[in-house]
Amino acid sequence: MSATKAQINISAVQFNSVSITRVTACMFGRGTSLVKFKGDTDVYDSIIAAPTLQPHASITTADIGTVFGFTPGTSSTLTATLNDALLATGGAVVFTMTNAVFENADAQAQHAQFGTVTATWQAYASDGTTNPLSFTRT
Amino acid sequence: MEPVISPIDSAAVVTAKPPTPDALILKESVKRGTRFINRVNSIADIAEPILGVDRSRNERAYIRQQPQGKLFITKSIHDTLLFPKWHDRENEERYRWEVQPDGSKFGYLVDGATPGGEIRDED
User: Which chain B residue has the Cα nearest residue A77?
Assistant: First the structure.
């Protein structure tokens, strides 16, 4: 079966060699911030630049215990696989974030609903230049 | 009497295969396809043979988007363009870059650079 070219479901999520299962949502962001300039007689911004990139990620899971076991400030590698919609070979993309620093975990549990936790990470570049977020195919 | 073979005998000249680069920089414009997986595959199809990626040994080409529409690709997630901030050679290039006719760049680790990335020894 050839790849469907569409992806459904995240799996194989790991941080600091710890597997995170029961994942219901996953987000990797490039973290681009724009700064705008206008001066003199400008009415509109005359320059917009993107000098700052702050890659980040968040994972929502029902596995509250595992995520609450992470220590804020811990730096490691975060990986997740976005699977082909029909699990076809060659259709999945692996996100890998190096120097991912665990930031926070917000748990919530409503009456008669499964409890979930959303964990967040921020990533840094050890050389200040190389994007800590990479893609590869499985 | 033994025949004397000239060291520059044309028959003995073998074109040396260029060494496999340690890193690759491609322009994002080489991406093909409209879907995410197609774009990743189109880059991996170019990068994996150049970098000598052996998928049977679980090697992969890790693709990083860099500013100015460039892609920095290596076989290790820990590779960086420059030596890390904590390194004695902070801000120095880890690769010697050779520009190819198509505009891509082949990177070769400079002396003292560690294959697979610079890893800080934890105290």
Answer: B77
Of A25, A50, A49, A47, the closest CA to residue A37 belongs to A47
pLDDT tens-digit series, residues A21-35: 999 999 999 999 999
DSSP structural state of residue A39? -
| Cα(A48)–Cα(A35) distance, integer angstroms | 6
What's the first-to-final CA gap in chain A, in angstroms?
Answer: 16
**At A9, is the secondary structure helix, strand, or coil?**
strand
Instruction: Please tell me which of the candidates B37, B65, B82 has its beta carbon nearest to residue A127.
Output: B82
Q: Which of B56, B90, B97, B91 is nearest to B74 (CA)?
A: B97
Residues 6+ apart with CB under 8 A from A18: A66, A69, A70
- The dihedrals phi and psi of B110, each to the nearest 5 degrees, come to -75, 165
pLDDT digits (tens, 9 = 90+) for B88-111: 999 999 999 999 999 999 999 999
Taking the CA of residue B2 and the nearest CA in chain A, the distance in Å comes to: 57
- Complex confidence, ipTM: 0.88
**This prediction's pTM:** 0.87
* Spatial distance between the Cα atoms of A62 and A126, rounded to a whole number of angstroms: 32
Q: Give the pLDDT of residue B123.
A: 43
Beta bridge partners of A57: A28, A121
Mean pLDDT of the region A113-134: 96
Domains contained in chain A, CATH given: 7-137 (2.30.110)
Q: Looking at residue B72, what is its pLDDT? A: 98
